[in-house]
Design brief:
The chain is mainly α and 116 residues long. The protein contains 8 helices and no strands.
């Protein structure tokens, strides 16, 4: 989000936010997972990880990975101490506007990508 939207100078931002918050599926997700700051940071980290995997996989293969496959991959990554540290470090860099590691896909072994 840019600072203009945050200051309220962008009515489109608030219209879009209203549309998203009115979506029953998103609202249920939001109500279940955005209850405190730690939950919010965790959800954002998962969502950014999803985005990184999705984008890099598409660039690497020219294909779109199924959302269910990305979800499994994220679960696998967070159950592994080394991968989890990589993601947490990347997220910390992202939050602090520091450069992130260049490729999350390069960090993953082919077995997690299923040799696609």
């Amino acid at each position: 989000m840019n600072t203009t939207a945050a200051r309220g100078n962008c009515p489109r931002f608030f219209v879009k936010m209203g549309e998203i918050m009115s979506d029953p599926e998103f609202r249920k997700f939001f109500d279940e997972n955005f209850n405190n700051w730690n939950d919010i940071k965790t959800v954002i980290m998962f969502m950014k990880t999803y985005q990184f995997i999705e984008n890099e996989y598409t660039v690497k293969t020219g294909k779109i990975m199924k959302s269910s496959e990305i979800a499994v991959l994220i679960r696998e990554m967070f159950s592994n101490k080394e991968y989890r540290r990589f993601i947490v470090d990347n997220m910390s860099n992202f939050i602090e506007d520091k450069p992130c590691h260049s490729s999350i896909i390069k960090f993953l072994p082919n077995k997690l990508l299923g040799d696609r």
